[in-house]
Amino acid sequence: MADQGYDVIVVGARCAGSPVAMLLARKGYRTLLVDRATFPSDTVSTHLIHPPGVASLQRWGLLDRLTATGCPPIGKYTFDFGPLTLGGAPGTDDSPFAYAPRRTVLDKLLVDAAAEAGAEVREAFTVEEILVEDGQVTGIRGHAVGGSAVVERARVVVGADGRNSVVAKAVRPGQYHERPPLTCGYYSYWSNLPVHGTFEIYSRPGRGWAACPTHDDLTMVVGGWSYAELAEHRDDIEGTLLSAFEAAPEFAERIRGATREERFVGTSVPNYFRTPFGPGWALVGDAGYNRDFITAQGITDAFRDAELCAGALDDALAGNRPYDEALGEYQAARDGQVLPMYEMTAQIAALQPPDAQMIQLVTALQSNQELMDAFARVNSGATSPAEFFAPDNVGRILGQT
Ligand SMILES: Cc1cc2nc3c(=O)[nH]c(=O)nc-3n(C[C@H](O)[C@H](O)[C@H](O)COP(=O)(O)OP(=O)(O)OC[C@H]3O[C@@H](n4cnc5c(N)ncnc54)[C@H](O)[C@@H]3O)c2cc1C
Q: Which atom of ligand 1 is nearest to the CA of 267?
């Protein structure tokens, strides 16, 4: 890694890029953070941050700033399967709450924290090209709005630029565990739909939806169906959602009495892992790994990647460890931590009725608060699905009833 203008250039300044830039700038690295967007600005994403993601904010000293914005804490997840409903606490003693901050608020807070740490931030700056010399990424070419092209060089370019990453397109990383889009999801915001600090999840064959509190006394409701039905319902999102809600009459009645305050937004996403590093480049967040949004893990995953990747880059740039070894460990840690949730997400996104074993399991959880808390922690990512669904653990749960 030759000495260049910056130590690190980070492309993309939302929940993956800003934390990477912040963490590296705090270590004293010359860091440039660019995004074609300006902040505050919205992006197509609902915004539940599970307690493990909230723990990252806490570690970085940013949780107090988030709570100061008036974002309500979420201390309970409920799972309404139709015949039965479970309810449990998704967090741990150290990080008991989830939050669902608007991205306009969260992403701005993160960009500001990166700038405060000493990263140079350029908003409204579009990266057009990733510079590669002899197989090594050496910098970027881009432009500010209305400006002419400029070149910036760095020892490492980090792609935190989302699913359509310009960095990934340039370096063509290997992709693995790929799956096509599984669901399509649409969301909006309602007033007069109180959910009392709860993330409500509803599961019906072929349909799923959820509601959680966010800023300004609004409740975000997101719902969806199989990707195979995308074209069939594209022209009547609201009607399709409202008819799905009828399968949960109490919820249908509550939302009928509420007011939708914003338009519907939605999309579908592919599922993949990308090799997240190579000579002079690294990928974090959706640029490196993506899963269906039905388990709401993306922001929490982006925070985890940011911390792992920044730690690995620090090791490599400081000369403590070889680059490939440090970054290889980032990849191994990421993959090891997310694979069980990736598989669980694909299963949930199939929107199939539960099989006999699942019915037996959730029936066994019902009315045992400790077990329902454990189930909520699996869905929040605080406990790995590999641990919870291990045959021994399932056997223990079934044996308790
Ligand atoms: C419908 C939907 C619902 C979701 N719900 C949740 C949820 O409830 N909870 C959750 O945790 N996750 C959710 N996710 C996932 C979550 O949105 C993503 O995982 C998360 O936003 C990834 O963050 P990121 O920083 O990697 O990428 P992004 O948020 O996509 O940010 C990438 C940034 O890169 C910038 N950029 C891209 N190209 C360039 C370029 N050439 N030059 C300069 N800048 C560039 C973009 O402007 C953008 O600001 C949802 C996703 C969708 C689609």
A: 1
Nearest to residue 298, comparing CAs of 260, 259, 261, 267?
267
What tokens does 101 get?
């901050």
Q: Is the CB of 111 under 6 A from ligand 1?
A: no
Q: Which two tokens stand for residue 354?
A: 């539960």
Distance from the alpha carbon of residue 43 to the mean position of ligand 1, in angstroms: 7
- Using the mean position of ligand 1's atoms as its centre, give its distance from the Cα of residue 45 in Å: 7
- The reply to whether the predicted model has a pTM over 0.85 is yes
Closest CA to 233 of 269, 181, 183, 271: 183
SS3 3: coil
Residues 6 or more apart in contact with residue 396 via CB below 8 angstroms:
none
Nearest CA to ligand 1 atom 26: 285
CB burial of 247-264 (b: ≥16 within 10 Å; e: otherwise) equals: bbeebeebbeebeeeeee
For ligand 1, whether the C-beta of 269 sits within 6 Å is yes
What's the CA gap between 9 and 126, in Å, rounded?
13
Ligand 1 contact via 161 beta carbon (within 6 Å)? yes
34 lines ligand 1 (CB under 6 A): yes
pLDDT in tens, 293-340: 999 999 999 999 999 999 999 999 999 999 999 999 999 999 999 999
Q: Is the pLDDT of residue 3 over 80?
A: no
